[in-house]
Specification:
The chain is an alpha+beta fold. Helix content is 47%, strand content 19%. The strands form two sheets. Strands 2, 3, 4 and 5 form a four-stranded antiparallel β-sheet that branches. The longest helix is centred in the first third of the chain and has 35 residues, at 2-36.
């Protein structure tokens, strides 16, 4: 009887020691996460929640000697998706692929990839397509406006005027030569 008393006591003591050890491990882990990793994790959280979106400056117009606009800007839109906010990826992918004339499988892979916070679906989308997308009230789909270059006279003086890249950087002609004056200063939202 005395022998069983000591074995029960040993078992209770070992269970108590294991419980104390587990609590010590948990408390140490919480201390390590909050104190050692705290600033790093807080910075990552702020980066995810308070992310700023770039605002592209409107590129300057080019006029001839009479003041007639020969190169101007037009508003275009960029459609992007935050996959973590999408509640119905099949519906979103189907709607975007139809409206934007894109491959369904490609759009679906972007919409359902939760490992990436934001994915651009298509740039330089027309205002009509954007109004259709906005009317659908799709969760996780966002639209940003940007400017694109238009040449009202078509191919007139194309060698002299030059052109810009999709990012609005002058590539040749007047667009490249006076790029630092025409580019403007970008901002953030």
């Amino acid at each position: 009887m005395l022998n069983t008393y000591y074995t029960v006591k040993k078992r209770l003591l070992s269970v108590l020691m294991a419980t104390i050890f587990l609590f010590c491990v948990i408390i140490f882990r919480l201390f390590y996460i909050q104190i050692v990793w705290g600033n790093n994790l807080q910075a990552k959280a702020m980066e995810q929640w308070a992310r700023s979106l770039p605002l592209s400056a409107e590129r300057g117009r080019i006029l001839d000697t009479n003041g007639t606009v020969i190169v101007d800007n037009m508003t275009a839109y960029t459609v992007y998706v935050r996959a973590k906010s999408v509640t119905a990826p099949e519906q979103v992918a189907e709607t975007l692929s139809k409206v934007l004339d894109l491959n369904y499988n490609s759009v679906y892979s972007k919409v359902s990839n939760r490992g990436i916070s934001e994915t651009t679906i298509k740039r330089q989308v027309s205002a009509e397509d954007v109004s259709i997308i906005r009317s659908q009230n799709l969760d996780g789909v966002y639209v940003a406006s940007e400017t694109t270059r238009i040449y009202p006279y078509g191919d007139f003086l194309t060698q002299v005027l030059g052109f810009v890249s999709v990012d609005g950087v002058g590539q040749s002609g007047i667009e490249a030569y006076y790029d630092k004056y025409l580019a403007g200063i970008d901002g953030k939202f």
